[in-house]
Amino acid sequence: MCVCVRGMEGPSTMSCINPQGKLCRSVWKGLILGILLTSFFILLYSYTTPPLSLSSTENPTVFSCFSSSVHESSKLSNMKNSSSLVVPTLPNCRPQKNLMFLKTHKTGSSTILNILFRYGQKHHLRFAFPHGRNDFDYPGYFQRTLVEGYRPEACFNIICNHMRYQHSEVRPILPSDAVFVTVLRDPALLFESSFQYFAKLAPLTWAIPGSGNKQKMDIFLQSPLSYYDSSGYNAHYLHNLQMFDLGYDSELDAKDPKVMQALKELDERFHLVMMLDYFDESLLLLRNLMCWEMEDILYFKLNARKSAYGSRLSPELYQMAQNWNALDTLVYNHFNATFWKKVEEYGSEKMKQDVLELQRKNELLKQECIAGGGPVDASKIKESWLQPWQPLGENVIVGYNLRKNISAQHKQLCRNMLTPEIQYMRQLGADLWVTQLWASIRAFFKW
Q: Which positions, given as ranges, span the membrane (predicted)?
């Protein structure tokens, strides 16, 4: 195990030693070499690559984002300011095609993204994709200039990639009748998932004793302030991550008046806050809100870890994780309450019946689409196009194999439902040269 210590010359010098006292120079050499090579390849790419031909994301239709009818804008405003939902069975219900989905981390959002990609592709909608990568320069705040093909007065139907939310920048690039949606998760379980996934990318975890991420997390939760530094690189992944993604200061005290102001703003801005812990119910509320069909929200679980099928937090550690993420816990509890009010308005009995119907349809498609009927280790995925993106230095995200002899009716649907985020973005015309370059570097060094 390498432990980082500050040098005698001052805080700017640091050495990494193992218990025998030898310098862990190879760790830093690898990191520095990776940074230098990445910079070199980016520079080389900028000089040698000809201008890209226009794709579907590079030539957005130019129309005012606020040219929608007053009726539509007023209807969405009323939906937001009251708890009422659009009911698809009403004669005047029309499918909504303009949507802002704030993709939060480790909340099942990759599965939701696949639903949105399929819907947008089916209806030839305009996606606001990031330029060159699969997120909007996260963890920096979203800027509209980061959108591929952005120009003043350009308007898009759907924006749904990872970002740190900034409402004043998002609002102008969507029509006035756009629906705003996000998803949250139990903060303790999210922290567990985030620590497991991002620990190697957060240097502050390198000094925590322990033989693996699970042991390191347990030790961290016993005394977080002994290891946590809010200014540390990627430290935001380990403290109130949902509050951070929503665009607020994740280091606020839970009793700070700014927290209640943030909740008020979120209530006003988002028509629906989904809950990963009640995923099927959330999708049905989304369907109701958007006036979509049941077939539009069918899904297979994507970007899941091998160990994602059950928490390993003891009751004591669970409580510690909630206490450490007090802001996220406050936000989650607030929107969990509003979530169940929406379920009551939907109709509790109707919700139970529709959940069963959604699960039945999902199961039928699983039998039709997935070889073996479930996820497999990445090493067993036969088709490279279906390989999910893996965390640095690990191979823990599972994926799927397509069944042979899928019916013509479902063949393309099955493939789309099993396609990981990055590959689907490429299929939709997104320019992901930075992401692809990083993937090539990782493959070369076997990271």
A: 27-47
